[in-house]
Write a structure and sequence with these properties.
With about 230 residues, the protein is an alpha+beta fold. The protein has helices at about 5-35, 90-105, 125-140, 145-150, 160-170, 170-180, 180-195, 220-230; strands spanning about 70, 80-85, 110-115, 205-210, 210-215. A hairpin with a 2-residue loop joins strand 4 and strand 5 (about 210-215).
């Protein structure tokens, strides 16, 4: 039985369309598989993804409070938190430290202060050493005293560390051994990476309640923002 030219043309078109659709489905399936992964088993190149380096500060959220955080002036029952990301070699951070010290004690524990290390090592190479030094002083129960001494120092170097050890009567042998422990540096580096992943890209960054901002607030600005949370 002969097939008419018209029927042959229609049949050819149908076969072509069927083959085209099948090819597209197969290609799509391969492409989808290539760009997806099961939980817990990401493709190797997922580690090459670069997180944004600039994030709108108004969209930043304050970090959750952790048991290992350094807390001052308040406690778990405080009304709000003031959280700072800082660097001991940062001049602006030193000014913020004085403003915090002049402002928060008057709230008698209603406001707690939490400090997070964020040494900007490309600008301040000594900043990581200073953060490690403060963490080692914490093992001797003198974190905040050391924090204040580092913030008050005009220059931070090994001589500064020696002076603080003497002034605070820190055990020099314990400090020396602690500063050599890789775990201390690794823990600080982990905190830096977490902060970077959250979009924090500079210091000083201060959260008052849920509002974050870079720079140095005046004492009046700090009080006004705190009061907006604790005074109806």
């Amino acid at each position: 039985m002969l097939i008419s030219r018209e029927r042959f043309t229609v049949l050819a078109i149908l076969v072509f369309c069927t083959l085209s659709i099948s090819t597209w489905i197969i290609w799509k399936g391969i492409d989808t598989h290539k760009n997806s992964f099961r939980a817990g088993l990401p493709p190797k190149d997922i580690n090459q993804v670069i997180t944004p380096t600039t994030v709108d500060v108004t969209k930043l959220k304050p970090p959750a409070i952790r048991p290992q955080d350094h807390v001052r002036y308040g406690s778990a029952t405080s009304s709000i938190s003031v959280i700072e990301y800082g660097d001991y070699a940062c001049d602006d951070c030193k000014q913020v430290a004085k403003i915090i010290q002049n402002t928060l004690p008057a709230y008698n524990g209603k406001v707690r202060f939490i400090y997070h290390h964020l040494p900007i090592v490309d600008m301040h190479p000594i900043a990581l050493d200073a953060a490690i030094f403060a963490e080692c002083a914490d093992r001797q129960g003198l974190f905040w005293e050391t924090h204040d001494a580092l913030m008050d120092a005009d220059i931070i170097n090994e001589s500064t560390f020696s002076q603080i050890v003497k002034a605070l009567k820190l055990d020099p042998n314990n400090m020396r051994a602690c500063r050599a422990e890789p775990e201390i540096s690794a823990a600080i580096q982990s905190n830096i990476e977490i902060a970077r992943g959250d979009g924090v890209n500079g210091v000083p960054l201060i959260f008052i309640g849920t509002k974050g901002s870079y720079g140095i607030p005046s004492e009046e600005e700090l009080k006004a923002e705190i009061n907006s949370y604790i005074i109806p």
